[in-house]
Specification:
The protein is an alpha+beta fold. It has three helices and four strands, in the order ββββααα. Strands 2-1-4-3 form a four-stranded mixed β-sheet, with no helix packed on it. A hairpin with a 4-residue loop joins strand 1 and strand 2 (21-27). The chain starts with 9 loop residues before the first strand and ends with a helix.
Amino acid sequence: MKSGIHPEYREVVFQDISSDFSFVTRSTLQTKDKITWKDGKEYPLYKVETTSESHPFYTGAQTRVTETGRVEKFRQKFAAKTEQVNAAAAVAAAEASEAKKRRR
């Protein structure tokens, strides 16, 4: 490999700020923060908002809306608008049939 063109690949501590969970892995991230890890060594620290310890998908806290619930919610939300559209369509159809009768 050519020297000077590749980023430094080193061990970095990733810390979940929402659950205070942290782990060490290798990365090329550049950070200014440092932390002393459990083994006594000092590592660069990168703070993240979500990891597998705090994300609802991995913790099982995620709730899933069923398809029937979504359909009912949609129908309730647009029921009034649907009624207005149907009433307007009925009026337009009645007017069209009357106009057709007048032409004869």
